[in-house]
């Protein structure tokens, strides 16, 4: 008999978690104005609000922290990190930042001007925020198929080359770069194919535009290329990463994702001019160029994490856990963005809460119901997160409305996945009794989902 699949690691340290009663959760959620970002972590049993900075570091990462070099300038830890990034990405210049959005802030301060257009595949919320706050426009050119959650396609994160070319023609002199998000977080952690990255590169060359990767989950993207794209089955994940980055001029990285550290990020590029400009902004916003908001010990852990998480076994363990949760949801016929993504399951909330109108935010309503059911904290990636249109100030209802269940790396077991699946089934079973959703009582102008105050209708 063939041996079943199991994790490629064992556990050395644990952290207790605590259950609560429904009455407690009702009270806590009311105090949090029905915004799960406002809950205290100790009020949560299984925390799926994000896979960012919530992973479990390995013994090798912890060991590397003990020999972190905290020198202000020229720390050994910086050169460890830089060497690893050079080797994995092929990018020469490396500038540390304290997290991904800081990398965006530093680089976009140099590159994005008022009235610019930045085309790409479903810009992440902070990326969109850093574009729109500079009075520029983020143009989403993702393939239309990504919208249809029930369509099973291998690379739903791709950019639609024709849409992209149209933007390049229309706004040519106002485009500082094209941005490719790998994996495409917003449409469900869906990967981008090597073929698509190559075609974007060719198009960019034709219009003389640089390409930037928003690379938070580039290793997961490489895993999917290996598993799904013709010609890559026998290539190592590291070889695939190297090829991916040959199609880009630079990257911004949230190391809290695929480098499995709790805090950290960087910019890497082969364009000397980008690096020279970014250095100056980096010093102003983040710190000196060999630490940029990071501790020496964290740069060491980042280097080890990046190396480990571009190995097949580690990625296989992770992504098979997501697939396991997806298989449990299939059993209960709960609709989610198919196929399961790299870091999360995205529940198609309007397909579950069919009686809740879009104006009453189905995904936020489902997020609230799941927390009340079992103390599980998911996250709305939908109409609230989409913010208002900067020109019309109307809510943007044209994208998907998801409840995202982000799975932290190496943190929960498949028993937790079972609890999540059954809790969601219980909500699903009473879906027809949920007829009203939520209303906004207060919201910020940008990235409102973090602080929005809601009431139940
Ligand atoms: C998380 C993330 C960011 C921002 O990174 P932070 O470390 O959270 O600041 C940018 N882009 C993508 C695709 C992300 O997932």
Question: What keyword list fits this structure?
Answer:
457 residues, alpha/beta, Aspartate Aminotransferase, domain 1, Aspartate Aminotransferase, domain 2, five-stranded mixed beta sheet, three-stranded antiparallel beta sheet
- The counted number of beta strands is 14
CATH structural fold name of the largest domain: Aspartate Aminotransferase, domain 2
Task: Please compute the radius of gyration using only Cα atoms.
Answer: 21 Å
General shape: globular
Describe the structure.
The chain is an alpha/beta fold and about 450 residues long. The chain folds into two domains: about 20-50 and about 315-455, Aspartate Aminotransferase, domain 1; about 60-310, Aspartate Aminotransferase, domain 2 (3-Layer(aba) Sandwich), CATH 3.40.640.10. Helix content is about 40%, strand content about 10%. It has a five-stranded mixed sheet, sandwiched between helices. The chain has a three-stranded antiparallel sheet with strand order 9-12-11.
